[in-house]
Each structure stands twice: as C-alpha cells, then as structure tokens.
Amino acid sequence: MRYLPRIASLSLVLSLQLACDDPSRLTQPAQEFSDGSASGGSSGSGRLLRKIQVNDACDGPSFNAAIGPGACSRRSGLLFDRFIALLAAEQTVGAWNFNPDEHDVKLGSTLLATNRGGEVHSFTRVQAFGGGLVDVLNQLSGNPTPAPECLSLAPQDFLPPDATSRTEVGGPGTERFQCCIHPWMRSTITVRGD
Fold it and tell me: Where are the domains of the chain?
C-alpha cells in the first residue's frame, strides 16, 4: 500500500518535530475553511445523495519537506510546524474537518465524501470514535486507542485529493465516520427510518 510508508514516516517526523517545537509559535488561530456545499441532491435513481466535504489546509512545501514528496498537493496553507503546534495545544486543527460534522439523512441515502484538501484522508465508518493509524497524531489529539476499523483498511479505503467515495447508510440509528489518519476529523450521521 503506497500510503503506509508515508504514514509511518509521518509518525517519526512528528516525534522529532515535537521534540524541537517552540510553543511561542501559537500566535494565530487555526484556519477554518469550507466551501459550505453540504447540501444534498438526488442521483436520478431515486436515492438521496448527501455530500460530505473532507477538508484540510496543508501547506505543500512545508508538509512535503517534513513528511516526504507528495504528502500535500496544495501550493500554500498552514505550515507543518504550525499544524503540529496547534494540534499539541488544542488536540485538533480546525481546518482539518468533515463538513458537515453532523447530518440527518433518510434511510437509503448515499454519502458522497469528497476530499477537498491536499492530503490523503479516509472516510471510515467506525463503531466508536477512536485513534487512527499514526500514533503521534493519536497522542496529540487525545485519541490513544485506535478505532479497530482503522487498523484493517485496504488501499481503496484511502481518499486522495479530489477523490470521492460513496457509502450507503445502514438502518435507522447513528453512524460514525472518521479519518483514520487525522482522528479528530469526524462526522455523526443520524439515519431516519421515515
């Protein structure tokens, strides 16, 4: 799987970065970005489609220098060291999110999760929220125990930039989705049976 070496190297890089991090860099709030297009539509086949935007604001040059070439496809954004400092201070980085993070859908709906960021993410259904694949990000985000579903991902479970995944919702109740790389990225879906 071509993303796992990057994820493993991210863990080492983040460990080294934390050892050298300067807390005085925490002078700006996290950047929030979303195109706000969380509206639904119809697929033409009678199935309801609900859009989820998978967002990040990585700075390509600094993330690629820290993690490796191809880690972030964006030209500019939040610098890697700032990302680490914010995560260490707040256990989250606001621009890394699922939009919406809560959604009500009808039974039979399909979720369309589109990666609008520059990093690889996952949109993984989990029984309960937990950590992901990168131990350092788990620790910094306060999610030390990985969600079991994150430990058995296949290559097609990763969502590269600009890619879209389709997920059918199950029966009525609550479904939870998280990114298995950035475990604070979460969405709770309430499925109505009406």
Answer: 4-192
Q: How is residue 50 written in tokens?
A: 């609900």
- What pTM does this model have? 0.79
Report how far residue 80's alpha carbon sits from residue 62's, in angstroms, rounded to the nearest whole number.
5
CB 116 within 8 A of CB 175: no
Contact 10, 134 (CB under 8 A): yes
The pLDDT tens digits for 32-46 are 222 233 344 444 444
Model confidence at 47, pLDDT cuts 50, 70, 90, reads low
More confident residue, 68 or 194: 68
Q: How far is Cα of residue 119 from the mean position of the Cα atoms in its chain?
A: 9
- pLDDT confidence of 187, banded at 50, 70, 90? very high
Residue range 4-192, CATH number: 2.60.40.420
DSSP for the chain reads: -TTHHHHHHHHHHHHHHHHH--GGG--SPPPP-------EEE-SSS-EEEEEEEE--B-HHHHHHHH-TTS---SSSB-HHHHHHHHHHHS--TTSEEESSEEEEETT-EEEEEE-SSS-EE-EEESS--B-S-HHHHHHTT--SBPGGGGG--GGGEE-TT-EEEEE--SSEEEEEE-SSSTT-EEEEEEE--
